[in-house]
Amino acid sequence: MPTPAMKPGYFIAAGIIMVLLGILAWICAFQVSLASTIVLGVLLIAGGVMQLVQVFGHGPTAGMPRWLAALTGVLIIISGALLCLEPVQGAMLLTAFIAAMLIIGGLMRIYWAFQLRHIPGWWVGLLSGGVTLLVGVLLYATLPWAGLLFIGTLIAVELIMAGVSATYFGFTLRKVEQELTQVP
User: Fold this and answer.
1) pTM as predicted
2) Do residues 140 and 96 touch, judged by C-beta distance below 8 A?
3) What is the C-alpha to C-alpha distance for residues 177 and 91, in angstroms, rounded to an integer?
4) Over the stretch 135-161, which tens digit does the pLDDT of each residue have?
C-alpha cells in the first residue's frame, strides 16, 4: 500500500526525464562513452590520492608494506590520468576488459551448468552462459569500434530502463491511490 509520502507524479516525471536522457545518451553514445571514461579517470585519481594520504597519514601498519601501498596509490593515479588524457583508448580498454569478463563469466556458467546437468532446468544456466559468452565474443570481435560506443550505450539502456520502471511505478501508484479513494 502506498504511503502518503509517495507522490506518483514525481515518479512519472522522473521516469520521463530518465527516458529522454537515455535517448539522448543513445544518440550521443560516443560522447557519453568518452565522458564516462574521463569521470572514471577522475575518480581513480581521487582514489589514488586518498590511498597516498592514508599511507603517509598513518604509521607502519600490519598487512601491506608502506612502499607497496604507496606504489599502489601512484599506479591508481597514473591509471586515472591515462584515462583522462586518452579517453578513446581508455574506453576501448574498458570495453576489452568487460568483454574478457563476459567471456570468462560465460565459460564459468557453462561449466557450472554441465556440472549440474542432473538437475532439471540445468539448461537455463547453460543458455545463460552461452548468451554471456556470445556477447563477450561479439564485443571483443567488434573492437575498436565497440569501445567507442559500448559504455555510452550501456548507460543509455540503463537510463531508459530505469525511466520506464519509474514511470510505470508512478502510474501504478496513481491507480492504487484512485482505487483507495473510491472504496466506500
Assistant:
1) 0.77
2) yes
3) 46
4) 999 999 999 999 999 999 999 999 999
